[in-house]
Hints:
By secondary structure, this protein is of the alpha+beta class. 35% of the residues lie in helices and 18% in strands.
Amino acid sequence: MDGFARGPFNVTYERRVDSASLREKRIQRALAQMDAAGLDALLVWKDENVRYLTDLRPQLIAGKTTALNGALLVPGVAPILFCSGGELDRVRLTMPWIVEAHAAPIMEERALVEGLVRDILLPVLAERGLTRARIGLDEASLVFYRALRSAVPEARIEDGDTPMQLARRIKLPEEIALLEEATALADAVTAAATAAVAEGQREMDVAAEGMRALFRLGGEYAHVMTPFVASGEHMAPPHRISSDKLIRHGDLVFIDIGACWNGYFGDVARTVVCGRPSQRQREIYTAVYDALQAGVAEMRPGRANADSAAAFYQAAGKYGLSDRFLSLFIAHGVGIGANEPPYIGETLPGAPVYEFEPGMVFAVEPLIWEPGVRGGGGVRLEEMVLITGQGPHVMSRAPFDERLLLT
Length: 407
């Protein structure tokens, strides 16, 4: 692992990521987890799982996740793709590793879903002896689930998402290289957006500059569908959109846009100040900064997510702010999924405790907000962190706003 981003092009003068080799390694990871779960096949519809198995980069439609493209993984054959008719010709022309592909409708209208299952999916399952098999399904509508149960009543439909999460949890060296590149792009997006912060600019103006940098540099998507730029009182509590609010002198401005490159996500965020900060803004910012450093320091083999979470709260407590964290996890896994397990600081029922392992990658994003602060009292700082055998490796390099740090 180089520990830096070499560049996004496929060049002749140095060895970079071998996409074919990476694709095969990912498939083998998924097959191993499928076997460990006692499954005979995996049928996936989540965007990130389809991409993990097939490398399909499709047109995505807002609100249609799990309704556009699917893939079937069976031992001994290349993943079978079920994709939008709008993708099919391109897939057959440009993706030779996809040996078998079928057109699929948008998976919503009952008659179309039932038609796909009856006339397209069922023959594929029957040809491979899967009509009485244990099939893992990651996520699908009730209409699809019922149609599948009706078509293969003797099959057992089981959890297929957990095996895929486990396959994706520890990143391969090639995936880490792609994540380093995505993080470099996310840093550049953050820099472009930060440079646009000025009195009289709107939150949406700042987001627009970040998005321009994203697409100019070859990015695929922002980390979130709604690029998050919030200024002043919009960060207390956070308004997780970019609005027409004018940025004013003394406003804290939070920027969280990130970047997807080659299917992998870089999730980087910073808070800056427009003009001169108040003493309380600096105290809140420093509390978040210190919490970030303390929490990341615990992210090493032999330590657990609970240890890291405790360090975040303890550091913030020195400023009397341990009870002002946003009611959300403090860190999430990131990879081919923009936001995926495992988590740090999740307080909802059922949250597991686990040890950090080399190859895990997290977006670490503590957010503290306090009401009633002129110009806003909400701060989030976010880093991309890789767990290595030697400890945490911070992949992101976007600078912090030194005007907001207490000296």
